Amino acid sequence: MTEDEVAREAAMVEPPKPVGGMISEVIADLKARGSDAGIDDEFAHDIEEGIQAQSHPWNPPS
């Protein structure tokens, strides 16, 4: 392959950019719009469980 052929065959692969925002930012935006929406205790508990589940290293079977 020539240098030009190599340059044409190369591709840049980038990870996807995260979508969305932090929950605190969403709530702040809602409050700024006059909304009285909030997080109930059950939802907050589910979020905390999800965070805890991701806080531990994953040790796959060998």
Structure, described:
With 62 residues, this protein is mainly alpha-helical. It has a domain at 20-55. Helix content is 50%, strand content 0%. The chain has three helices and no strands. It has helices at residues 3-9, 23-32, 41-54. The longest helix is centred in the C-terminal third of the chain and has 14 residues, at 41-54. The chain is flat, with a radius of gyration of 22 Å. The relative contact order is 0.07. The model has no long low-confidence stretch (mean pLDDT 80).
Keywords:
mainly alpha, 3 helices, 62 residues, flat, 0% strand
Spell out the helices and strands N to C: HHH
Structural class by helix and strand composition: mainly alpha
The low-pLDDT segments are: none
Shape: flat
| Mean pLDDT level | 80
The helix count comes to: 3
* Helicity range: 40-55%
Radius of gyration equals 22 Å
Head-to-tail CA distance between termini: 40 Å
Question: How big a fraction of the residues is strand?
Answer: under 5%
Please summarize the sheet with the most strands.
Answer: none
Secondary structure: number of strands? 0
List the helices and strands and how they pair.
Layout: H1 3-9, H2 23-32, H3 41-54
Quick structural summary:
The protein has 62 residues and is mainly α. The chain contains three helices and no strands.
